[in-house]
Design a protein that fits this description.
glutaminase activity, 5 helices, Rossmann fold, 4-stranded mixed beta sheet, hydrolase, alpha/beta
Length: 207
């Protein structure tokens, strides 16, 4: 299978690639949209500033190809900043984002220590039978590793598959059809994070 990890100099590419390789896939790490057409799955990692990341995506002419890829119905995973960029805008610099998921990315409330860094639990919205396939075999309230100062606030809550408490409950997993995104870093989350990647890869493999 061909799994593309988007390189736009705003992600922890090495850690993500190693995690995917541990699950039997050698990812193509590239920032060239010409490679998107025959990709079976795609990962948009991200760390740092939302406006800077959007500038980088725009400079590489990746914004429309990413939107088109998601619209194609093939599995897409956004990681950390990769979740926040899916929304309409970010409060960080009041900048436009990809506009795939209606809503805004917001700064964590005043009074909280930011960034929110370290292990925290993730609570699933649905019972086991109704969960998205990417969550198969992952226990409710599993702990994942977070590093972020902003959080995604989707307008429509149907896609919010899990939440995490840090001063407020925030969306920690967005999963709707082929579109999946996490506020945490699966590649830094031990065995449960690798299971998450394994489930995502399984979505793209032929039966």
């Amino acid at each position: 299978m061909k799994l593309v990890v988007i390189d736009y100099e705003s992600g922890n590419l090495r850690s993500v690639s190693r995690a995917l390789e541990s699950q039997g896939v050698t990812p193509l790490v590239i920032g060239d949209a010409s490679e998107f057409g025959d990709a079976d799955a795609m990962v948009l990692p991200g760390v740092g500033s939302g406006p800077s990341a959007m500038d980088a995506l725009n400079q590489r002419n990746l914004v429309d190809p990413i939107r088109d890829y998601i619209s194609s119905g093939r599995p897409f995973l956004g990681v950390c900043l990769g979740l926040q960029l899916l929304l309409d805008r970010t409060e960080e610099g009041d900048a436009p984002c990809l506009g795939v998921v209606p809503g805004d990315t917001k700064l964590l409330p005043a009074g909280l220590k930011v960034p929110h860094m370290g292990w925290n639990s993730v609570t699933f919205k649905d019972d086991t039978a109704n969960r998205h396939p990417v969550l198969a075999g992952i226990p409710d309230d599993s702990f994942f590793y977070f590093v972020h100062s902003y959080y995604a606030d989707p307008e429509h809550r149907d896609g919010v598959s899990a939440t995490t408490e840090y001063g407020i409950p925030f969306c920690s997993i967005y999963a709707s059809g082929n579109l999946i995104a996490t506020q945490f870093h699966p590649e830094k989350s031990g065995p449960v994070g690798l299971k998450f990647y394994r489930n995502f890869i399984a979505m793209a493999r032929p039966n």
